Amino acid sequence: MVNNSLTNVNLVNVDENQTETETSTTTENQQPEFKTFYQRGLAKYEQQNYQSALAEFNQAIDIDSSHADAYIYRGDVKDKLEDYEGAIADYNEAIKIDSTHPKAYYRRGNVLRKAGDNWGAIADYNQAIRLNPNYTSAKHRSHIHADPETIEKLLQD
Prior knowledge:
Elements: E1 4-13, E2 18-27, H1 32-46, H2 50-63, H3 68-80, H4 84-97, H5 102-114, H6 118-131, H7 148-156
Antiparallel strand pairs: 1-2
Helix pairs in contact: 1-2, 1-3, 2-3, 3-4, 3-5, 4-5, 5-6
């Protein structure tokens, strides 16, 4: 039986320019090396040292590839580095590990929007809200700009 403990992490939400407290789940039985690399990755991210954060998250994932938050935060780093394809791949992996994680859908939606996939972004924001109706960040899906044809299709749905 695995006992879960919670660790709070403050990260800046790029789209809202505000600090949002997010909760990531870690297990007491995790390998100490994973936790060390993971926490260093978070610290490097906070310091905006994205290349170092990427290296730390890579190490953490090499040690334990079953931790969805490690993929989410590595995806965040790749997003900052404008590696949108890599970020989407990491969010996809996080969703494979935990398909009930609203943060993974929300973050993937952000990157899809940047990559010009407005339909994909809206679908991910909607899924994040379905999983957590109080996920206020995802409720900002109305910020997606669409051409008149896209708006017409949205109105028909």
